[in-house]
Amino acid sequence: MVEISADALVVGGGLGGVAAALALLRAGRSVVLTEEYDWLGGQLTSQAVPPDEHTWVERFGVTASYRALRDGIRRYYRDHYPLTERARAWGELNPGAGHVSRLCHEPRVAVAVIEAMLAPYRGSGRLRVLQPYRPVAAETDGDRVTAVRLAHRDGGGEITATAAYVLDATETGELLPLAGVEYVTGFESQAETGEPSAPQEAQPLNMQAVSVCFAMDHVDGDHTVDRPASYDFWRSYQPSFWGDKLLSWRCPSPRTLEIVERSFTPNPGDDPRLVEADQRVNPGDANLWTFRRIAARDNFLPGAYESDITLVNWPMIDYLEGPVIDVPDAGRHLAAARELSLSVLYWLQTEAPRHDGGTGYPGLRPRGDVTGGADGLAMAPYIRESRRIRALTTVTEQDLSAAVRGDKGAVSYPDPVGVGMYRIDLHPSTGGDNYIDVACSPFEIPLGALIPRRTVNLLPACKNIGTTHITNGAYRLHPVEWNVGEAAGALAAFCLDHATTPHAVREDERLLADYQHRLTRDGVELRWPDVTGY
Fold first, then answer.
1. Are the beta carbons of 367 and 379 closer than 8 angstroms?
2. InterPro entries attached here (predicted)?
C-alpha cells in the first residue's frame, strides 16, 4: 500500500475540485487531487455539458478564476483554431454559437485550459494529480477524517492519502457515506423544509434523471450505428406525463409543462453572431441542433469543419428508470442510461421523423473523438444530483424563488462566500415527477451550506453542499459549482493558516471577515448588484 500526504486532499477533479485545488495552491498549500476519469473538468469535459450560465456572465456574477477559465477557452481557440477573421475579432466569441450559453465549445479545449491552469503547481511539486483513481474507504477518528483509501480505476493498485483537510468534490458525494458524514438524498419533505414544491413525505430515492451525453455532426454517407440491444424497449417507452413516446420530437416544456414539439435542422447555416444565447429571453431549445451546438462551422475557415458539431443533452436522453446513488444496482442503471443514449442516436439515424416527410438522418455521425468515450458517448454520465451534507445552513426554495421572494430578491445571508444565478431547473425524476422549473432571484452561497453539522475537517466542494433536492436545481450549474469549490479550498487554506476550524470561522465575526476579505481579494464576488432574476 502506497501512502502519500499533503495539506489538503481534494477527491474529485470536476469543476469544483479543480477550483478548490487552485484556491489551496494559490494560498501556498500542497494538494493531492484525484479524479476517476481521464479528463479533469467534470460536467464541462468528461460529461460533455456546455456551460449553463446566467445572463450577466460576461460582466459580473462569477469568480475571477472562473472568468480566467472562460477567457482561456476563448484564447485557446484564437491561438490554435482556424477561425474566420470575423470570429477572431468577436470579443465574446462563442465557438459553437449554441443557444444554451454564450460560450459553447468542444470539451477538449476546456481540458487543455484546466491543465494549463494547474501546470505550474504540478511542476513545482505542490500538486499531485492521481488519475484515474476513486475513493473506496475512509478512516475517521471521532469527528475527523484521518485518511482516504483510493483505488485505481483499472486495477493499478491502491493509495492511502492523509491530509489535514479533505474536500469531497466527487459528483455524487462519494466520501460522505465512506466517512460517516450525515447526508440526505432525493426529495426532502415539506414538513422538514417548508418548500412549496416539496412532497408531503420525504422521498430519498426520488432523484433527477442522469443523462449520458454525446456529440454528433451531419455529413455525407451512412453512419448508422449498430442497433442497440435494448432499442425496442426504448422505442416504445412513454412516461405518463410526456405526451408522446420518449423517442419523439414531442415532450413537456419545462417552464409550462405544455406538450411542445421541437424542431431539428442539421447545419441550418445560421449566422453565429446573431445567436441570442440568453436564457432570460429564450431557453433556446426550439431547434435541438443549435440548442447545445459546440462547433459552428461558419466560425471557422471554409473547409475546416465539414459540419457543425452539436451536443446531445436533450430531454429524450434523461434516464428515469432508477437512481444511481445508494442503490445496489447503480451500475445496471448507468449501463442502461448509456443504452438509452445509443438508442436515441440510432432512432435519429433511422426512424426520426424528418420535416421534409422522410424518416431518419443516416448522415448523423457520432463524434466520440470529441467527447472521449470509446462507445461514441461522453466518457462520464451527467449526474445532476448528489448526496448532500446535513449542513449548518440548508438553502431552501423560499430563499430564492421569485414567486416567494417577489421584489425583495433572494435571502441575503450573514456569511456569503459567493454568488450564483439559475432557475430552479429540475429534470424529470426517478420517482415519476415531471419538470419543476421555478424562476429565481440572483442568490448568494452561504458559508453555512459548506460546513457539515458535525465533521470538522471534511468540506463539500461540488454539488454536495447544504441545498435541498429543489434548490440543488439552481446551485448545480458550472459557475456555482466552481465558486463552491473555490470557497471550500480557500476555507481549508484559511483554517490551516490560522489554526482554526470552519465552524469557528463562521461563528467568529473577525475570522469570518478575514476569510471573506481573502475571497474578495482573490476575485470572489459576495453580493449581487441590483439585478432582477428570471
1. no
2. NadB
